């Protein structure tokens, strides 16, 4: 039996064990609509009016329509024209429990939480009394195995930016072997010059998305429009495996492709190091999301982790989009069964605030090195705590696995039924995608037609449709999505 | 009469005119404490206990003590040991109306605002129905003259990062003269290479602070500890004027110093441009805050603005700390009376969320170039709207000018009384600072002793004490600060 298959089977059996331990999920009782209902063009007349208003104050290229968040419920998003969408994109994958979940409403209706909203503290200097307990009950309660520390941040980009800084500081602290920085380092850094601002690098992958601020953007390689015209850094970029789906039918080719990429990782470590530009870390997504839902095997990630150890570099797993249960595990990298945990794991989106988990080794060695005014926001932790509790109490990971299985089976059925239109249905949990054979235009047409049928979904990569529903998305919702897509595809055929 | 003096007088007379138009401020009726009250060591026993708890989960180098935000009121911060501080630092200058202001409590008690908190939208894609009106009533209502557009962001660093990107995009769009990007540009940018990721630069000043993410950090030059070990970009860094205070007594020297710095700005534009590394913009704070409360004259800024025009570069004013009324004007750069407004003005902190104002010219020319998942948060706009309304209704700018005048006069008196300890009292509105002659250690001792007397203040630069009270800080609070400082200085003498 191949290593890849062994790995997959071992991941599966570990999932089965989890299933075994957990009770079957309760059928969720959600206060929501029976199904989508579309009354106007999308965007409707009221949305168009608001679009004109907003456009006089701000660019609006990306606005799809305007929403009525008060009326939205569970898996259903309501727009200002009264249209009701089954939402499988959930605000770019950032709402864990759908709309107006009672557990979250309860947090914000609690007068005790009001003062943290009105008096947003400088969390690093003057935390509120309940901050340690909140961190414990929200973030640390779901900390990745082996990562005992956390820093809170406001968004995904800030999380990655600060994680990169933590890696560079860790690397230089090791280099100094306990010695303090030299006067020359302290002087030169003020002018952006070496040795104080050293010529260190961080490795990323083609197709990656880690954010849009300048440090993050140097490691983002998903779409030209994100990067065009912005000065960048010469940091190593390794090829991310381009696997064939279904993975189990292309085992040998996929293994060879992953081998090719890992060889390049080795080569880039050697090339940059010998050029005096040390590679201090590697950043990677468990599934490349914005880049087109590109998967790699647990084996690939295990070997990547081993390579970082070999070269004394940090291993940073960016779980901003893959985290919080969407793959059927809390963190996607749980499925890799690493012997050594990652050094740093970043999060945002469905955690409702950002930050990064890290090992003891990656604690900043003095004050104000990893810092900003707000460092996130305590009210986000209060909401995150409610999310963690709800996922546990309602057994939502099992729900994700069941709904995901129905959705993926349905998409696989559709790609067999419409072989000229669809291919490569793939996914973990409800983190599911499928490719459109007619490229960009074909994909966008399907997304628009789905919207007209009341399914709010999203694209990624060049020709991919991605599903990013909330954790309360259930098998019967998955069936609605598949049926709507069936109709759309039949109309195109 | 010198130009500098003319300028100052003209600024003053414009202020006077404003005063004339506005009614004298009502004496604010605030529900707050009569004065500070300190019962324990700082940090007290409960704070120490919580510090130990938090330190097992996260670094805590910067924690001063833990707070009871429910009990804090107006200008007074209450800690977990029951100590009451008169707070003139206000969460690193980020609370506009002090603690638990009724106008903000009202916003968050309004059930209509609950859904924007629970259902945080991807604002760029799916804004709520009231978003255009909210933007109008909060941000646009106080937009700097000439800047009709705004983009919302989550924090100060993201605001500057995206403003920098907007400048680079604007510059390259001009260069192309309407032509689309070349295939070579679209390909090379994916690998961080020129011409797609061009070698453009942005000028900043010694002593500046614009944030800590990698792009911002390349323009931050206030303290080595912020920059040490982080790779950076070779961008031009001009000297910021080191003026002598009081400004009116050192006119000729200060004018010469500003001339020297402006000559260097010219030289750097020429040097970088001739090296094929165009300087696309200049970023500057109206008063360098973190760098030590360094002032420059309106004349200096007017000439800087003219220089950017001359070289076809953008002029970005970072008002993250100086904005929102603290100088006695809504924006500090209002006092410069520019003929041409800045191209971009960034904000955060007291605006309660981040973003940047800009002219029509700086609108992104296509979708997803300036974008992220959340793009700020609508609930912050609802609060900002209440701040704008409260400042207007309660005439808080005039209050700031009056309280600031009492505080600055008091500090000037103290520096005369303690000439071996203090010098350089300076400020605009309540944005006030004073230097400690004994350097870092002396400054930190005074800050600690002030805390023991119930005054919560902050430091900046190497030896400066900075005052950053809320807009509801009144003359009688200023007197308390001066009296407490008098006692502290007398004990040191």
Notes on the structure:
2 copies of one chain form a homodimer. The first copy, chain A, is of the alpha/beta class. Chain A folds into 2 domains: 23-104 and 395-492, Alpha-Beta Complex (Aspartate Aminotransferase, domain 1); 121-376, Type I PLP-dependent aspartate aminotransferase-like (Major domain) (Aspartate Aminotransferase, domain 2), CATH 3.40.640.10. Chain A contains 16 helices and 16 strands. Chain A has a 7-stranded mixed β-sheet with strand order 3-11-10-9-6-4-5, with helices on both faces. In chain A, β7 (287-288) and β8 form a beta hairpin. Residues 1-23 of chain A have low confidence and may be disordered. At the A-B interface, α2, α4, α5, α6 and β3 of A face α2, α4, α5, α6 and β3 of B.
Radius of gyration of chain A: 23 Å
CATH class of the largest domain in chain A: Alpha Beta
Structural class of the secondary elements of chain A? alpha/beta
Largest interface: A-B, 126 and 126 residues
Task: Give the termini distance of chain A in whole angstroms.
Answer: 41 Å
How would you summarize the topology of this molecule?
Two copies of one chain form a homodimer.
Chain A: H1 3-21, H2 45-55, E1 76-78, E2 84-87, H3 90-93, H4 102-109, H5 114-118, H6 131-138, E3 149-153, H7 156-176, H8 183-188, E4 201-205, H9 214-217, H10 224-227, E5 237-238, H11 251-274, E6 279-284, E7 287-288, E8 294-295, H12 298-310, E9 314-318, E10 344-347, E11 354-358, H13 378-393, H14 396-417, E12 422-428, E13 431-436, H15 439-452, E14 455-456, E15 458-460, E16 464-467, H16 475-492
Parallel strand pairs in A: 2-14, 4-5, 4-6, 6-9, 9-10
Antiparallel strand pairs in A: 1-2, 3-11, 7-8, 10-11, 12-13, 13-16, 15-16
Helix pairs in contact in A: 4-13, 6-13, 11-12, 14-16
């Amino acid at each position: 039996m191949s290593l890849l298959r062994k790995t997959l089977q071992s991941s599966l059996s570990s999932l089965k064990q989890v299933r075994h331990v957990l009770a079957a999920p309760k059928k969720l009782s959600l206060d929501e609509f029976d199904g989508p209902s579309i009354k106007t063009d999308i965007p409707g007349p009221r949305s168009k009016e608001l679009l004109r208003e907003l456009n006089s104050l701000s660019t609006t290229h990306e606005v799809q329509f305007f929403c009525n968040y008060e009326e939205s419920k569970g898996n259903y998003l309501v727009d200002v024209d009264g249209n009701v969408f089954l939402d499988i994109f959930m605000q770019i994958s950032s709402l864990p429990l759908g709309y107006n979940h009672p557990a979250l409403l309860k947090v914000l209706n609690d007068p005790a939480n009001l003062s943290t909203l009105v008096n947003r503290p400088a969390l690093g200097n003057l935390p509120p009394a309940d901050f340690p307990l909140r961190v414990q009950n929200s973030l640390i309660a779901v900390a990745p195995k082996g990562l005992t520390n956390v820093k809170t941040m406001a968004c995904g980009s800030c999380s990655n930016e600060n994680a990169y800084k933590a890696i560079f500081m860790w690397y230089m602290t090791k280099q100094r072997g306990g010695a303090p920085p030299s006067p020359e380092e302290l002087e030169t850094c003020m002018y952006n010059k070496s040795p104080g601002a050293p010529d260190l690098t961080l490795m990323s992958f083609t197709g990656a998305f880690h954010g849009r601020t300048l440090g993050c953007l140097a490691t983002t390689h998903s779409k030209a429009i994100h990067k065009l015209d912005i000065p960048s850094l010469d940091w190593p970029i390794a090829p991310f495996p381009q696997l064939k789906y279904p993975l189990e039918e292309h085992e040998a080719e996929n293994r060879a492709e992953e081998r090719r990429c890992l060889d390049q990782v080795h080569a880039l470590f050697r090339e940059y190091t010998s050029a005096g530009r040390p590679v201090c870390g590697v950043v990677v997504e468990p599934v490349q999301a914005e880049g087109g839902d590109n998967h790699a095997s647990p084996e690939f990630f295990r070997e990547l982790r081993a390579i970082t150890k070999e070269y004394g570099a940090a291993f940073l797993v960016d779980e901003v989009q893959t985290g919080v249960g969407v793959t059927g595990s809390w963190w996607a990298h749980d499925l890799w069964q690493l012997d050594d945990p990652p050094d740093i794991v970043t999060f945002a989106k469905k955690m409702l605030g950002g930050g990064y988990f890290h090992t003891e080794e990656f604690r900043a060695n003095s004050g104000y090195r990893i810092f900003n005014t707000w460092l996130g926001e305590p009210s986000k932790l209060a909401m995150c705590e409610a999310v963690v509790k709800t996922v546990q109490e309602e057994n939502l990971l099992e729900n994700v696995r069941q709904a995901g299985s129905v959705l993926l089976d349905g998409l696989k059925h559709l790609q067999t039924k419409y072989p000229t239109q669809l291919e490569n249905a793939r996914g973990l949990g409800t983190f599911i995608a499928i490719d459109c054979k007619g490229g960009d235009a074909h994909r966008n047409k399907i997304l628009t037609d789905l919207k007209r049928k009341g399914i709010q979904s999203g694209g990624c990569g060049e020709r991919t449709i991605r599903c990013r529903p909330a954790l309360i998305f259930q098998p019967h919702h998955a069936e609605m999505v598949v049926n709507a897509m069936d109709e759309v595809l039949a109309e195109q055929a």
